């Protein structure tokens, strides 16, 4: 059954290092456990003019540099500051903001604070007060963000007129997968063409800014004994316009030796790894991976090389997801313990 658009709150994040996106994805999973079908975008990837049509928007915003907006929301922020915007732009919108920052900086959570004031000035109605999440807290950013999630969910559950199908949060609930693997041998020709057309339509703002270049030189400019490995990289046909101080983000890939360790641990054979498939969304509001990372048909081998962050530190949400599918009671209990914020807080005092 297709989700009802009225059950699809909008989640927008602004991030520089990925922390706000991780928090946003965590919040999306929590809303899915409440039987909602949230949409997740970076701030600049959503059409700004459409914001005023949204009934509920949750913003998760990190502060960049000296109190600046993160790079993936600066365009939208400039539009929000426009003098031509009517003062009732957000009159029909409920909103909540989780501001992520570090109180050791003078401009602590400036980005979230500025956004909060601006939305109020444009008529927005707050679901809860601005939540300031501090990385300097003894329990880290989670202390503020967990409180934000709890308070926000409590208020959303009272908004039955906007979300008629919302349910009480059940963290033991097993969610359906976001994607279905459609192996090539099981897809008819007509289906393949339709899937490829749909995949080509889904181009995000960050994807439009992606440029493929050949590396001509990669020279280390610091001494071999220096603790920092600083490089001078020369690109072929580097004709893109840029200004002093601009930053180029490079799309990484996993090292072959690390990938092989994963294959050995999971006991995957070549037939499993090289079997081509298309990804099909089980929820229309879920986004497919960007096309500059994955093109279709793809394989598990390519996903492990280009898509999966196999060196990342597992998050509590990761352990929570594993606990829902574990069939071993002892394993399930341990995974739930690792996923439980309160257990981790108590462990810090032991």
From TrEMBL:
One MF term in the entry's GO annotations: flavin adenine dinucleotide binding
Domain of life: Eukaryota
Keyword terms: FAD, Flavoprotein, FMN, NADP, Oxidoreductase
GO cellular component, one term: cytosol
Cofactor: FMN; FAD
Keyword flag Magnesium: no
Ranges where the Flavodoxin-like domain occurs: 9-153
PANTHER family linked: NADPH-DEPENDENT DIFLAVIN OXIDOREDUCTASE 1, NITRIC OXIDE SYNTHASE-RELATED
Protein name: Flavodoxin-like domain-containing protein
Source species: Panagrolaimus superbus
